[in-house]
């Protein structure tokens, strides 16, 4: 009920029912933040923790997140693991195929900075933010499923602050 109070600013009793007033920004952002469809892009070790977050113990479905295999049906990409020079164009292509507004979460040290491959690898990209814009960074090697869920909650808060007009 607190969530409804946050979204709907003013409720009045009318003789025939209720009248609810809110801004379209708050209504659309509330709906969008609570119905994120995500595309998994697991490249290395972090993918195991990402899959664990979607399994029954942590259950990301309860946050309104639904896994989709097609980028055309998603608005969130979770990149977990080392991004190589060979995979970077594919990540960019999938990101471009996603519908607007689209968001990216970089999960793990390798996807944020290149991790252990930062200095000695010619093939590792020094962070997925060189390929696509990243909205939330989740550090760790590998980060636990709780950290991924916290990052998703941070992204939901960010989405709730957006404006349709400014986009």
TrEMBL record:
InterPro entries assigned to the protein according to its UniProt record, in alphabetical order: NADH_UbQ_OxRdtase-like_20kDa (IPR006137), NADH_UQ_OxRdtase_20Kd_su (IPR006138)
Transmembrane helix in keyword set: no
Membrane topology: Peripheral membrane protein
Cofactor note: Binds 1 [4Fe-4S] cluster.
Catalysis performed (reactions): a quinone + NADH + 5 H(+)(in) = a quinol + NAD(+) + 4 H(+)(out)
GO CC annotation: plasma membrane; respiratory chain complex I
Binding site for [4Fe-4S] cluster: 45-46, 110, 141
GO molecular function term, any single one: quinone binding
Name of the top EC class for this enzyme: translocase
UniProt entry tagged with the keyword Glycoprotein: no
EC number: 7.1.1.-
NADH:ubiquinone oxidoreductase-like 20kDa subunit domain sequence ranges: 45-155
One record GO biological process: electron transport coupled proton transport
Swiss-Prot/TrEMBL cofactor(s): [4Fe-4S] cluster
Subunit: NDH-1 is composed of 14 different subunits. Subunits NuoB, C, D, E, F, and G constitute the peripheral sector of the complex.
Protein name per Swiss-Prot or TrEMBL: NADH-quinone oxidoreductase subunit B
Annotated organism of origin: candidate division WOR-1 bacterium RIFCSPLOWO2_02_FULL_46_20
Lineage: Bacteria, Bacillati, Saganbacteria
